[in-house]
């Protein structure tokens, strides 16, 4: 992240220096004394050279980013940004610097036409202004349009923007130069020159805005989501460099006899249900422990209902929509259900409208801690409370616990402002516990961002990540903090000592955050908060995961997801976009696989935000971080990728269907940070879009 932030600061400084130099150059023909000319020349000399040095520093930062993070972090910069910066700076070195040096030999009358012509020569001022605009484009591109896989047209478009930005200054500078040569130059009062400068700046701004508006108009129309579509990008099928699939080339119109629809991928439903639940989606006013009122959307009128099953059970859950107008679904987050049971509206089912119902039925093959939530307009519906926990006990208990507590945290918008709570406990909770008791905390982060947690008062173990057990988990020292991705889950185990134990969100600087105090005799009135002693790192914990992908040397398919950000339109609205390979849904690629293949995906985060990447229907094994093998590969379904980080993960394509792969910061998914994993023998069954009522996020 250092190179990115430093690059932004350097390019903004370059822009300021070049524009300052440009203003001074523009005033040279109005200087009447050699003393003032010497002062101006000295100042320009330093401004230009400092700006050139900063340009070299920026280039070194780009090289450092390339060496440290790989080519894909810088390919857009080098292909699209670097050419205009190099050309602008090269012209300054070749044309402007020699003329600037020659000004010291200007000894004759400064009011003469020859002297003024040398001071007003276009190749003094225009290269400086060009360098200023090139630096400004570089600085703002980091925030406004991070180039990813730019084509020749993209390079030309940026060059055209630079040339158009120079149009008005070029006209002004050239006309002034010609008037001097024709001895028609008049030195106007300062206010007149300032007015001319402001007018030129406004005209330049108008030219730039018109150019951007013309380009934005085209993107505005292309950003409109189709009224009805099948969510699959038929125009960008990425096969990951593997062998041809049934969707390759001419096979896009393959005989459907060998294909199956998503709706048919239900799994074997013939066995009777071992456990049954009924969930009613409804609006409900809830009171938190503090008395704060929340207007929530709930399942069964309570916050985060808990469903339980035993590994191997046939689970049946009937969803009824009482009064959620836009419809609801249930997505089983992290649970590898058959595709038709995944709960994604428009992909695996239609949204359940008010008065309707839908029954989910699947075999509980995975033990562990999971959760469920609506995937219809998820950014809104999860925020309002349409979620719960799904706990699957192992078929054969390996270890028993005296106390087991499920804690799912969420931020609520209440009548008392924003409140963070575990379920509905937004205050510090106290629980009496005998020393020596074994305690298991099942933690679920249902927030929009990753959260930091801390256990203080005893050593502990993290035994499971996203429902997957860790082999031989180490004992973590007292006050070791850990961070959990949005949508992620950790199982935390400790033995109660003869002193209080505190579990809470945040750290010693967050005394107002909720948590649990476990105590043996009398509860402490106020927890004695202490700074954390370290940070948990799953890449160096326990024993390495061993499965069918950890020993693979050559994968059947390899995909790359470059995460970036830019300003642009989404469905006709101007907003901040989070992109995958430079695009947002529905223009993101469709990853195509065959059943049984070993697949690798590389995440590259060039953006300024973390992104918890969540693949439906599969678990990913983390193999590499920042280009290096992790010491202990681990299994996850929601991987938090921080800015300037890269991860290589792998999975086996063993669950046929059409699956979402998206950022679980649901506000990001709502503006298109979504793509789809498609098995080549599967056909869509449902439609999305405003015309269907299905709005997955």
Automatic annotation (TrEMBL):
In which domain of life is the source organism classified?
Answer: Bacteria
Q: Which InterPro entries match?
A: Cu-oxidase-like_N, Cu-oxidase_C, Cu-oxidase_fam, Cu_oxidase_Cu_BS, Cupredoxin, MetI-like
User: Domain Plastocyanin-like, which positions?
Assistant: 282-395, 576-680
Task: State its location(s).
Answer: Membrane
Q: Which Pfam families match?
A: Cu-oxidase_2, Cu-oxidase_3
Q: Which UniProt keywords apply?
A: Copper, Membrane, Metal-binding, Oxidoreductase, Transmembrane, Transmembrane helix
- Topological relation to the membrane, as annotated: Multi-pass membrane protein
Q: What is its main location?
A: membrane
Q: Where are the transmembrane segments?
A: 6-31, 43-68, 80-98, 119-143, 155-174, 194-214
Q: Which PANTHER family match?
A: FI03373P-RELATED, MULTI-COPPER OXIDASE
Recorded protein name is Multicopper oxidase family protein
Organism of this sequence:
Cohnella boryungensis
């Amino acid at each position: 992240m250092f190179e990115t932030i430093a690059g932004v600061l350097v390019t903004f400084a370059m822009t300021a220096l070049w524009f300052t130099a440009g203003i001074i150059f523009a005033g040279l023909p109005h200087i009447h004394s050699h003393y003032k000319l010497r002062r101006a020349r000295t100042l320009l000399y330093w401004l230009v050279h400092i700006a050139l040095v900063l340009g070299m520093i920026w280039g070194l930062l780009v090289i450092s980013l390339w060496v440290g993070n790989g080519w894909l972090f810088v390919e857009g910069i080098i292909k699209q940004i670097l050419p205009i910066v190099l050309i602008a700076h090269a012209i300054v070195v070749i044309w402007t610097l020699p003329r600037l040096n020659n000004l010291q030999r200007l000894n004759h009358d400064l009011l003469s036409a020859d002297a003024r012509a040398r001071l007003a020569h276009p190749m003094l001022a225009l290269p400086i202004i060009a360098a200023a605009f090139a630096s400004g484009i570089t600085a703002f591109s980091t925030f406004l349009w991070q180039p990813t896989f730019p084509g020749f047209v993209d390079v030309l478009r940026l060059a055209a923007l630079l040339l158009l930005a120079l149009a008005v200054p070029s006209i002004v500078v050239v006309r002034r130069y010609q008037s001097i040569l024709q001895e028609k130059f008049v030195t106007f009062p300062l206010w007149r020159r300032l007015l001319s400068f402001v007018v030129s700046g406004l005209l330049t701004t108008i030219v730039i805005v018109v150019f951007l508006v013309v380009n934005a108009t085209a993107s505005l129309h292309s950003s409109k989501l189709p009224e009805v579509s099948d969510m699959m990008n038929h125009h960008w099928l990425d096969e990951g460099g593997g062998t041809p699939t049934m969707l390759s080339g001419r096979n896009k119109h393959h005989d459907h006899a060998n294909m199956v629809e998503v709706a048919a991928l239900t799994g074997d439903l013939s066995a009777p249900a071992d456990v049954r639940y009924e969930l009613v989606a409804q609006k409900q006013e809830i009171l938190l422990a503090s008395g704060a009122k929340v207007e929530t959307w709930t399942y069964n009128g309570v916050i985060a209902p808990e469903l339980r099953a035993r590994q191997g059970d046939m689970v049946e859950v009937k969803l009824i929509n009482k009064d959620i107008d836009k419809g609801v679904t249930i997505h089983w987050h992290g649970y590898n259900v058959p595709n038709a049971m995944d709960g994604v509206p428009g992909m695996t089912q239609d949204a359940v409208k008010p008065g309707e119902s839908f029954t989910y039925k699947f075999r509980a093959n995975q033990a562990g801690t999971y959760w469920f939530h609506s995937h219809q307009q998820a950014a809104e519906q999860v925020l309002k409370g349409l979620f719960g926990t799904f706990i699957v006990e192992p078929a054969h208990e390996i270890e028993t616990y005296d106390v087991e507590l499920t804690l799912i945290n969420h931020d609520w918008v209440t009548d008392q402002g924003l409140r963070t709570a575990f379920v509905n406990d937004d205050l510090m909770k106290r629980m009496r516990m005998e020393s020596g008791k074994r305690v298991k905390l099942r933690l679920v982060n249902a927030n929009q961002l990753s959260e930091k947690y801390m256990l203080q008062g005893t050593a502990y173990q993290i035994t499971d990540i996203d429902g997957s057990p860790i082999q031989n988990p180490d004992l973590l020292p007292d006050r070791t903090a850990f961070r959990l991705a949005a949508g992620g889950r950790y199982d935390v185990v400790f033995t109660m000592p003869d002193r209080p134990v505190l579990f809470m969100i945040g750290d010693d600087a967050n005394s107002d955050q909720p948590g649990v105090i476990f105590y043996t005799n009398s509860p402490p009135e106020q927890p004695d908060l202490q700074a954390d002693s370290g940070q948990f790192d799953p890449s160096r914990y326990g024993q390495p995961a061993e499965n069918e992908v950890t020993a693979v040397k050559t994968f059947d398919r390899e995909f790359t997801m470059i995460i970036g950000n830019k300003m642009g339109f989404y469905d006709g609205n101007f907003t901040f976009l989070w992109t995958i390979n430079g695009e947002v849904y529905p223009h993101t690629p469709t990853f195509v696989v065959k059943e049984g293949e070993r697949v690798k995906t590389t995440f590259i985060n060039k953006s300024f935000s973390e992104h918890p990447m969540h693949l439906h229907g599969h678990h990913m094994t983390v193999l590499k971080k920042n280009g290096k093998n992790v010491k202990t590969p681990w299994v996850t379904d929601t991987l938090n990728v921080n800015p300037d980080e890269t991860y290589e993960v792998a999975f086996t394509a063993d669950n046929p269907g059409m699956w979402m792969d998206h950022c679980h910061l649901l506000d990001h998914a709502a503006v298109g940070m979504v793509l789809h994993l498609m098995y080549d023998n599967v056909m869509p069954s449902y439609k999305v879009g405003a015309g269907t009522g299905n709005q997955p996020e």
